[in-house]
Amino acid sequence: MLKKLTVFQEVRELEGWQAVAYAATLLERMLPNYTLFCEVTEFADPSLYRNSLDAIWDWLSSPKAKINFTAQLEKIEMAVPDVADFDTYGVYPALDVAMSMTAIILLIQGEDPQGAVVVSKLSQGGVEAFIEATAEGDISDAEIKVHPLMQWEIEVQKELLVLIKKHPHSGSTCKLLKAFATEPGMTNIGIEIN
């Protein structure tokens, strides 16, 4: 449990572009979970969320970019899945993406200064829930902590903190962070990205 707390504490201390960049990078790893859910269930057009995340990256790359985040928020709120409407596990990671997207936009708008912590916890919680859902029988907290997916999640978040603190706010840093999220070719819950 100590490892988790230190990551969240460090994320809590991020401010401004660093907090948004941290959250956007984690969301970049999670987004394919939403896309896959939409493709399988025909729930919504996943490009809505892709476009919103691209707008966040644009805003990060060039802070003078004029982006109507209130309109973005309205669009994504129309495509939030209701877990009661689906009997597939995929709705949960999809909902994590929707909640993360909302948290980042509220962070940008200054309405939720802890938006990066919200996304950090949703990503890690999503991994935990996935491990529990795919385990054969009951699984202890200790077993979850040492599970390769959870170990990877914690390492990614720690490495991301180092990257964000080491690099200046720039378009090239945004490219680096996006590549960091997509290069492993897997989502936070281990689903392969084509």
Automatic annotation (TrEMBL):
InterPro entries: DUF416, YP001051499.1-like_dom_sf
Pfam families tied to this protein: DUF416
Protein name (record): DUF416 domain-containing protein
Annotated organism of origin: Paraglaciecola hydrolytica
